[in-house]
Amino acid sequence: MKEFSPEQHRDDEKEIRRKEIVALAMELVEKQETFSFSGIDPEAYLKMKATDEEYPGFTTPIDKLIERFKQEGMKVVLGKYPESGNVFILPAGSNDIENDSISPHQLDIGGITDDGLKRLISIT
């Protein structure tokens, strides 16, 4: 009987989680649904705001993104290599992952009504 090391067990758990993230994201992307903006997690907002101030002009400022999310809604997109598990949240009218994206875990989960999106936020 083969024994697994703790490192192998962690790697297996990470792989299972990555596959779940990819499957959920693909399902949400295929629906082509626009979701209502639920807000940004307060702690994540403070970190993003500090980054905006430290690196002005590097990406779209978070306050501008929030306004766009409120106006346009939001959508789930996958990165260039979908199987990697890189998932992004963009304003519904944007395809600019480089400048306009946030990570699902940065959203305030409280206002989310879609179960798939809730699950995605909770595991990222």
Q: What does this entry look like structurally?
A:
The chain is mainly alpha-helical and 124 residues long. It has five helices and two strands; from the N terminus they run αααββαα. Helix content is 51%, strand content 8%. It has a two-stranded antiparallel sheet with strand order 1-2. Strand 1 (74-78) and strand 2 (87-91) form a beta hairpin. The protein starts with 5 loop residues before the first helix and ends with a helix.
Q: Report the sheet-strand fraction.
A: 5-15%
pLDDT averaged residue by residue: 91
Rg, rounded, reads 16 Å
Question: Mind summarizing the main beta sheet?
Answer: 2 strands, antiparallel
Using DSSP, what is the number of strands?
Answer: 2
How would the global form be characterised?
globular
- What order do the strands of the largest sheet run in, or round the barrel if closed? 1-2
What is the succession of H and E elements? HHHEEHH
How many individual helices? 5
Amino- and carboxy-terminal Cα gap = 34 Å
Structural class: mainly alpha
> What is the share of helical residues?
40-55%
- Stretches with pLDDT under 50, minimum 5 residues: none
Number of domains: 1
Main features:
two-stranded antiparallel ribbon; mainly alpha; single chain; 124 residues
Topology of this protein?
Elements: H1 6-31, H2 42-54, H3 62-72, E1 74-78, E2 87-91, H4 97-100, H5 115-123
Antiparallel strand pairs: 1-2
Helix pairs in contact: 1-5
Short structural summary:
The protein is mostly helical.
